Amino acid sequence: MANPEYKPFKSIHEFLTAVHIYADEAKQGITRYVEATHYCAHVRKDLRQCLIYDSHEQDAKLIGVEYMVSKEIYDSFEPEEQKLWHSHEYEVKSGMLILPKPAGYTDKEWEAAELQAMEEIIHLYGKTWHFWQVDAGHEYPLGHPVLMGSAINADQLDLNTAMAKRNKTFGVHHEEKAEARKDLQPHSIHPNDELADLPKDSPYAVQSLLLYAICLYAGSERAKAVRILARASDLAIELALNRADYASTYGMQDALVEESWRRTWWELYVVDGSFAAMQRQTTFRCNAVELTAYLPCEDNVYREGMLPPQPATLEQLDSRFFADEEQPFASACYRIEAIRIMGQVLAASNGGENCPDDIQAVDNAIAAWRLHLPFAKTGIIDRFGEVDQMILQAHAFIYTATIILHFPRSELPLTLPTAADIACAARMTQASPTSAQHATKAISASKDLSDLAGLPVDKYSPLFTCGLVFACIVQLSACSAHPHDCITQHRDRVALMTGVLKSIGRSWAIARDVILHLNKIANGVFRPHDTTGVVMCQPFMDSGVDVDSMFNNMSWLDFFPAGDMSGMDDIV
């Protein structure tokens, strides 16, 4: 019979004290806290596990457990799982959390060691369950386990009161600890942290989450951006922002507030559809609900506060095709319509199972959108001589939708060939007249996107990145398929679009990421001849690029770096 060695307990080597608050009560504005003495083991670099006692005395009660993980692991969790975890940011920065000094250390030595430990803990997320509510006077561990958390701001509890006993016991003061830790760089509290200081039933939360999702995407944190946007969509639909009566009911009888709620919903709708296209989804959440919210007005009208007496409806927008007289709609309305068409394209891109009539119907919708644009909206410059950002994005979405619809069905190579497969002197075999028509439309849309890139625009939305990448891939594929046709034109268009990506990359990391890969591929496709000055499409085997590792089995859509949706951020 083996002798018990208590090996798991020998791995415990960290002693922490703080207070835990009851998570569900905190969401209701009630702060009930209990002293929490942690005895922790570092299982791995990204995982710690702690036994929680109500004191450090010999007769202390074991009241719970806490697990701590790195931010990278936390970010990989599903949104519902993330809600069970809490940030340690305020706990560390406020001086609530301490490592009591053991014997054998000077104050200076231990302060340095404690500060180093806090530099690690501030970036960890904790999941804590208490089984024994000793603060309620329970003699035994009664009832269900209770989810606990940590305070996230000074409004939740009086630190002087909460820390008084602990400070006296260990001869410390939380304010001195806070001063010593003021330069620690914390992470921002994640919106899916259930104790995040964010209203849970407010359109302001939808706006905050939407902006955060866009920033995450622009910062090349695509997996997190998708999760945050999903939370924004769920909350908006739960609040019924998609319904016509929401703005009037909760607009405080203020026309500007009502317009703000309408614009919030439709901006969410546009971003949701754009993200769906980038992630190769066949549908998106905001497109699967009733759409009766009134449409937004022109941006300059909203800024000036001169709102129309009655906003337009989606039904009126749809009826414009058969109206005897041209009806004016805001540029944002055509942007919304472009995303609605994008939704049709995504639904048609479900593995090629749609019949030709279905594909033609979507293609007709794209053509009708362009043909029925008012003359004032066919260009990107408005009557004041300024770039109309809404109509610019609307055109970009339509051209991107065209590429998504036609490029996979075209004669162009869906997988850029390996060095052994490509020969510059040979043309690819034309599949069929239908396939050639798809190629023509895909190439035309990529040219239209490059024309947008050539406009004198100072600022671009990070969402424009997607369309530019798709357009570059079409141009590169066209050069690979037809190596002697208009090579200089293909090269110049790709150079223009990568130049815009470089410009966007000064602000947004997503553009910096994709341009590295596009440049590598473009260098393999285009090769200038110094002796003639003529740009030719060269065999990949002569390009100096490791084509086998780059292009083997790489789908054109998979080129765009969607990121691993389980939380990995590697680019394909």
From TrEMBL:
| Signal peptide region | none
* InterPro entries the record matches: OBAP-like (IPR010686), XnlR_reg_dom (IPR007219)
**Keyword Nucleotide-binding in annotation:** no
Report domain Xylanolytic transcriptional activator regulatory positions.
Answer: 196-318
* Entry keywords, A to Z: Nucleus
One GO biological-process annotation of the entry reads: DNA-templated transcription
What one GO molecular function would you report for this record?
zinc ion binding
Pfam families recorded: DUF1264, Fungal_trans
Q: Which family does it belong to?
A: Belongs to the OBAP family.
PANTHER family referenced in this protein's UniProt entry, alphabetically: ZN(II)2CYS6 TRANSCRIPTION FACTOR (EUROFUNG), ZN(II)2CYS6 TRANSCRIPTION FACTOR (EUROFUNG)-RELATED
**Name of the protein described by the UniProt record:** Xylanolytic transcriptional activator regulatory domain-containing protein
Which organism does this record belong to?
Friedmanniomyces endolithicus
